[in-house]
Design a protein that fits this description.
The protein is an all-alpha fold. The protein has one domain (about 1-75). About 85% of the residues lie in helices and about 0% in strands. It has 3 helices and no strands.
Length: about 80
């Protein structure tokens, strides 16, 4: 039973890390889009750039989860 609860806690933490990573990716992507609009004077950014930013956000979210899951288990959730 404790093993199941421990795995559940790790799963919940992984989801939280994914959401934080996705939020960070979307935020940095939005900043990049605004900088592109500001520097190059675009009114509307092309769909290709928008897809790159969406890919960046997903990449950062996956990277956050992988970094969390590859960390030593003692750093994740303390076992009793």
């Amino acid at each position: 039973m404790t093993r199941v609860l421990h795995n559940l806690a790790i799963g919940i933490c992984a989801v939280v890390y994914a959401l934080v990573g996705l939020t960070f990716g979307v935020t940095t992507g939005f900043i990049v889009l605004k900088l592109v609009e500001l520097i190059f004077g675009f009114v509307i950014v092309s769909p290709a750039v928008q897809w790159v930013v969406a890919g960046w956000a997903i990449f950062v979210a996956v990277l956050a989860v992988v970094a969390y899951l590859r960390s030593p288990s003692g750093d994740r959730v303390a076992r009793e």
